[in-house]
Amino acid sequence: MYVPFENLPEEARVWIYQSDRKFSEEELAELDAALQTFIEGWAAHGTGLEASYQIKYNRFIILAVNQESQSATGCSIDASVHFIQELEKKYNVSLLDKMNVTFKTGEHIAHKPLKDFKRMAKEKAVSANTIVFNNLVNTIGELQDFWEVPASESWHSRFF
Length: 160
Fold this sequence. Notes:
Layout: E1 13-18, H1 25-41, E2 43-44, E3 47-48, E4 51-56, E5 60-65, H2 74-91, E6 100-105, E7 108-113, H3 114-122, E8 131-133, H4 140-146, E9 148-150
């Protein structure tokens, strides 16, 4: 069951999928419709999940579930991963590769393989103050407070 993202509690669980490129305006319209349809039918053991989604910066897909009303289960999480894999094929993007880093360079959002980000840190092309996207956050509250943070305040800090 779809609910507006802002109506979910801070404890709602989130999953963040980052694309290796920005989606076009046409793709965003298609994605919005596909995500809406998926969320409407997303269920755990036959019970609809109170869920929502956001697309941020034309490149991040964020799924969220209010676990207080019905918890996401292994099968429902598998269904969401399968859905994301279908999006990867349809749009020829990488959404599940966790070995990439997305970060801000001024107003621009950059996406690099982890090995390149490490090299950039060593070469001081990025710093501990570089704003990174910490896609390891687990809840909406963490998303609000700890998703876009200086590298020094995330798991990226080990590179500095």
